[in-house]
Amino acid sequence: MAYEVTATRKRPKTFDELAGQEFVAATLKNSLETGHIAHAYLFSGPRGCGKTSAARILARSLRCERGPTPTPCGRCPQCEEIARGSSMDVIEIDGASNTGVNDVRQIKEEVLFPPTSGRFKIYIIDEVHMLSNNAFNALLKTIEEPPPSVIFIFATTELQKVPATIKSRCQQFNFRLIPIETIKSLLAQACREMEIEAEDEALFWIARESTGSLRDAYTLFDQVVSFSDGNIQSDIIREKLGLVGLDRLNEFADACAANDVAGALAKIDELIGDGVAVEQFVTDLAGYYHSLYLLKAGVTRESLLGYPPERFSAKVLEKLDTQKLAHAGELLFDLHRDIRYSVSPRFELETLASKLCWLDRWISPAELAEAVNRAGAVLKGDVSRPLAQGAESPRVEIPSPAQREIRDEIKPGQKGFLSEGFKAYKAAKEREAAALSAMPAVPPVQPHLSADVQTVLKLFNGTIIKSGTE
């Protein structure tokens, strides 16, 4: 018997076998039981999550000799033809290679003919978002008012590219990414069926690397089985995938928490020497700090962390709070985005490592804003040239409003110069006193900068990082 890949061998044949899509399976089963069958369905979601498999199961349920039924028998000629892909009344079309108006016109001509056998003629169009706008427009009328025996099932990974006029004429089902625990249990089941031994951690890394795609997990599983000699171990997985592993991530994070830049750089050199790609290390490190962030926030579920909580570095958790761990994630996200365009990815990674080593001294924007606000209460004037400790500001004589009014009102040499001058001076002083009493009280300006102002200035000048005591 010819070898069959695991993804094909384990392809679901009923709605109950559709992993991770319980809502979709339950809704379609209920519609089949009640006879509420739509003329067009739109399945959307990430790759490898079961869209095409669900379309084939739905086609089998509709064309089964016992159907329409939510549980097709799988033994009648109709079910067997669909399983082999040889049914003349279940037409699968690749939307990526049949994108033009002429392809749609051919479909419009074919739907006028009844099915050769069975109740329904079913069109499954995969990657439907690849159709051109003219092709979509040509298909509108047929989708809205198809013959009673014709059913369309569309599948797409990019729902946003499907026109709203198409979506409004279909029943939409959104497929989710499959949880890691579900993929892990299915991989363990495949190991038992193939009589292969596998470490629990090794299956976890395969499931995690698949990023929610069961098809990708089965493909990677087949590759690992090919050279594992019947025993899948975690070190084999790390070598195959170029992964770092939790122990080495803990060692790197401990060096950073101890402000040991040389130790962190030595760990990077060791990992790269073992064949770990820079981009893979950044990806694993981002996942590691994400788990630390969840732990610091109080999350202890192993399904979210990937490992038991006690396996993570206690030193890092003790030294860093959630804000600093979140900032580490931001640094890693930026590096992961920029590293593909870098002329020296390793140098950028080493620069990031030095930043992580000083992460405990990082000041968050909220803390900086608070320090600036406190400094603003005592800082008056230009802070670009701060006064020395204990120095006094130079005094500049500025004429008061009363003195300026006297100069304008009294001219030397006028008749009654002294008496008129006294009256003008008195009136001006009274107006000045009234104006001052209406003004809010202003705190006195301190002769030197406060501690908050000095902290802000040191931060901007870089001295707060240079001195380990501040």
From TrEMBL:
Primary role: DNA polymerase III is a complex, multichain enzyme responsible for most of the replicative synthesis in bacteria. This DNA polymerase also exhibits 3' to 5' exonuclease activity.
One Pfam family in the UniProt entry: DNA_pol3_gamma3
Alphabetic keyword roster: ATP-binding, DNA replication, DNA-directed DNA polymerase, Metal-binding, Nucleotide-binding, Nucleotidyltransferase, Transferase, Zinc
Domain of life the protein comes from: Bacteria
Subunit description: DNA polymerase III contains a core (composed of alpha, epsilon and theta chains) that associates with a tau subunit. This core dimerizes to form the POLIII' complex. PolIII' associates with the gamma complex (composed of gamma, delta, delta', psi and chi chains) and with the beta chain to form the complete DNA polymerase III complex.
NCBIfam families per record: dnaX_nterm, PRK05563.1
Record GO biological process: DNA-templated DNA replication
Protein name: DNA polymerase III subunit gamma/tau
Catalytic activity: DNA(n) + a 2'-deoxyribonucleoside 5'-triphosphate = DNA(n+1) + diphosphate
Enzyme class: transferase
EC number(s) stated in the UniProt entry for this protein: 2.7.7.7
Lineage: Bacteria, Pseudomonadati, Spirochaetota, Spirochaetia, Spirochaetales
Domain AAA+ ATPase span(s) in chain numbering: 37-179
Recorded family membership: Belongs to the DnaX/STICHEL family.
GO MF term (any one): DNA binding
One Gene Ontology CC term in the entry: DNA polymerase III complex
Species of provenance: Leadbettera azotonutricia (strain ATCC BAA-888 / DSM 13862 / ZAS-9)
